[in-house]
Amino acid sequence: MLDYLLQIIPTIADGLKVTIALFCVVWVLSIPGGIILALLRLSKLPVVDKIVEAFVYLMRGTPLMLQILFMYFALPIMTDGAIQMDDSTAAVVTFVLNYAAYLCEIFRGGIQSIPRGQYEGAKVLGFTYGQTMRTIILPQMFKRVLPPLANETINLLKDTSLVYVLAMNDILRITKSIVQRDFDISAFLVAAIFYLIFTFILTNIFNYLEKRFSVYDE
């Protein structure tokens, strides 16, 4: 049993390259995307607000797997091949759009939780809207949204397994192929341990950030 585990662990670990790469790219791109969408929703332009609201509703109201399949298979057909992406690009674009929509609502709630007096105080001091957001509002917003941001980050790690539908060699696809080849479910246990390890790391990072920022509330 131990020999078999030592044999399959490196193979499953190869899938980490795809999983971690997708996770990092999506996380880095979806955060600014979510902030931009949140600011657009809070703008004083009703048309822009409604368009972003409809986009967020669409992304949150349909399954992520359906969105992946649509982006990779249906979109090229609908556009007669004008828009066609490889599996990696389709996965990244779909994940970024989906998670930017979720983060939009988290960030919007965080921004709206900041007292209006801070905006007025910044205006009195001569701050522009951009300066107020960048130096006063957004830093406080990030501190307040850390718990839901942590949840979405962990969800993103787990959701990366959905790319197996595009035949990308992530952890889940490699694990499934090993189980089907060897008729042994030990590979599922190894994959679960990999996910749990990274979830543990992410949880502790966010716990550290929450404790660090909570010092300034005392």
UniProtKB/TrEMBL annotation:
Protein's membrane topology: Multi-pass membrane protein
Gene Ontology, cellular component aspect: ATP-binding cassette (ABC) transporter complex
SUPFAM superfamilies named among the record's database cross-references: MetI-like
Intracellular or extracellular location(s): Cell membrane
Name of one Pfam family that matches: BPD_transp_1
Transmembrane segments: 20-42, 54-77, 89-107, 185-209
Key words, A-Z: Amino-acid transport, Cell membrane, Membrane, Transmembrane, Transmembrane helix, Transport
InterPro entries to which the protein is assigned, alphabetical: AA_ABC_transptr_permease_3TM, ArtM/GltK/GlnP/TcyL/YhdX-like, MetI-like, MetI-like_sf
Protein's recorded name: ABC transporter permease
Organism of provenance: Veillonella tobetsuensis
